[in-house]
């Protein structure tokens, strides 16, 4: 049986999280969600992730600060021991922001 990968999606935009969830679940992945960096760190204390997708700009603890706060120490190590792959997708600011 093939291993199932878990992806943590951290984004303050509910619509973005739902879109990412839908796309990732179609690929057969398990998806965990967080609304900001602090919540993402809490999720990772309770479970593990193989991939972390962080919004770079979020209120409170943003994606960059979450990386500094220790994502690599809280996630399952990648096969080469370098920590889970992490990316920080970032949408341009909304009009009026």
Instruction: Tally the beta strands.
Output: 4
Percentage of β-strand residues: 15-25%
Tell me the series of helices and strands, N- to C-terminal.
EHEHEHHE
The Rg value, from CA coordinates, equals 13 Å
The overall number of domains is 1
The dominant shape is: globular
Helix content: 25-40%
Poorly predicted tracts of residues: none
Comma- or semicolon-separated keywords:
97 residues, four-stranded parallel β-sheet, 34% helix, 16% strand
What does the model show?
By secondary structure, the protein is α/β, with parallel strands linked by helices. The chain has one domain. Helices cover 34% and strands 16% of the residues. It has four helices and four strands; from the N terminus they run E-H-E-H-E-H-H-E. It has helices spanning 14-26, 37-46, 63-68, 71-74; strands at 6-10, 30-34, 51-54, 86-87. Strands 2-1-3-4 form a four-stranded parallel beta sheet, with helices on both faces. Helix 1 (14-26) links the parallel strand 1 (6-10) and strand 2. The mean pLDDT is 77.
List the helices and strands and how they pair.
Elements: E1 6-10, H1 14-26, E2 30-34, H2 37-46, E3 51-54, H3 63-68, H4 71-74, E4 86-87
Parallel strand pairs: 1-2, 1-3, 3-4
């Amino acid at each position: 049986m093939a291993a199932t990968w878990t992806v943590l999606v951290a984004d303050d935009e509910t619509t973005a999280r739902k879109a990412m969830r839908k796309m990732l679940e179609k690929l057969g992945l398990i998806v965990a969600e967080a609304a900001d960096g602090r919540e993402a760190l809490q999720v990772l204390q309770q479970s593990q992730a193989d991939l972390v997708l962080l919004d770079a700009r979020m209120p409170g603890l943003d994606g960059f600060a979450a990386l500094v706060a220790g994502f690599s120490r809280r996630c399952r190590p990648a096969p080469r021991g370098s920590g889970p792959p992490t990316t920080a997708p970032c949408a341009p600011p909304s009009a009026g922001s």
